[in-house]
Design goal:
Low-confidence stretches: none
CATH superfamily of the largest domain: Spore Coat Polysaccharide Biosynthesis Protein SpsA, Chain A
Mean pLDDT: 91
Number of domains: 2
CATH architecture of the largest domain: Alpha-Beta Complex
CATH class of the largest domain: Alpha Beta
Strand content: 15-25%
């Protein structure tokens, strides 16, 4: 039975073309399902002309990542596994076979994800622990420079140590660029939460998957190239606000109320600091007035109480 591959696309025509072309490297029979979130860049025309075998779903509006993936799931049939793949991701030779083989051999695992690399071949963080307040600190004040910068990919920042080894390991959640999920797991816990528009969808989903008793692993012998942020990067301010909103939603659903309150205070402090920083940059001619307004407005909205 062909493996359903669900790809949610929004104005990623060229990347989507490369993504679909990479499926030819797989020896596993596949059935790509593209959910197009009302693209305006010719993606649909490209699909019809160059990939007529693709199952194209057109909801007629931008549903966001979670709802669009759930729409694709409705077309996935009865295959034992489903691959969720970003349009800015490309399979490498043997990657799909390694992921499928891993689930075949480990029936207690509900989801497996590959190792990710950037297009230049550099490793990309792809295995994470669930968010903590310390990780929120690092989000607001990203560590950089000698010494302090080493904390960015440190376990304190929720990163697993991905040292280029070939041994699979258990994780709490992957980056959502590529995830092979057992259909039985989806039937038990449901699909993505429709409450999430962009960001944290896979985090909340993995939270439910693990709470249901399923394990999640990374299989580093499977490698996927990921350009990172192709769709979300198109809306700088909108995606920034969506990120903070999604995190608040996840914290409210998964953690005790006290976590959300402390996180809210942390964001307020960060908003004040970042706004003053933007003012300082503007007064020294480093950014223009429009950028000053953009930054201060975005941080103010992010810090606004729900």
């Amino acid at each position: 039975m062909p493996l359903p591959i669900i790809i949610v696309s929004y104005n990623t025509c060229d990347l989507l073309r490369r993504c679909l072309a990479s499926l030819a490297l797989a020896c596993v029979p596949t059935r790509p399902i593209v959910v197009d979130n009302a693209s305006t860049d010719g993606s649909v025309a490209m699909l019809r002309a160059e990939f007529p075998a693709v199952t194209l779903v057109e909801p007629g509006a931008n549903l966001g990542f979670a709802r669009a993936n759930n729409l694709g799931l409705q077309q996935s049939g009865t295959a034992p596994y489903v691959l969720f793949l970003n349009p800015d991701a490309e399979l490498t030779s043997g990657a799909l076979e390694a992921l499928v083989g891993f689930l075949d051999e480990h029936p207690q695992v509900g989801m497996v994800a590959p190792r990710l690399i950037y297009p230049d071949g550099q490793p990309q963080p792809a295995a994470f622990r669930f968010p903590t307040l310390l990780m929120s600190v690092f989000d607001c004040w990203p560590p950089h420079g000698r010494g302090w910068g080493r904390l960015y990919n440190h376990p304190l920042n929720g990163r697993y140590r991905e040292d280029g080894g070939q041994q699979p390991f258990a994780i709490e959640h992957p980056l959502g660029a590529a995830m092979l999920v057992r259909a039985q797991t989806i039937a038990e816990v449901g699909g993505f939460s429709a409450d999430f528009w962009l960001y944290a969808e896979e985090v909340e989903w993995c939270w439910r998957i693990r709470r249901a008793g399923w394990a999640i692993w990374q299989e580093p012998r499977a490698t996927v190239i990921h350009a990172a942020g192709a769709s979300s990067g198109q809306f700088r301010t909108r995606s920034f606000l969506a990120l903070h909103q999604a995190r608040r939603q996840f914290f409210a659903q998964a953690y005790a109320p006290g976590f959300g309150r402390w996180h809210g205070r942390l964001i307020q402090v960060a908003a004040l600091h970042r706004s003053l920083e933007a003012l300082w940059l503007w007064r020294r001619g480093r950014i223009d007035r429009a950028e000053l307004r953009r930054r201060t407005w975005a941080w103010g909205m992010a810090a606004r109480p729900d």
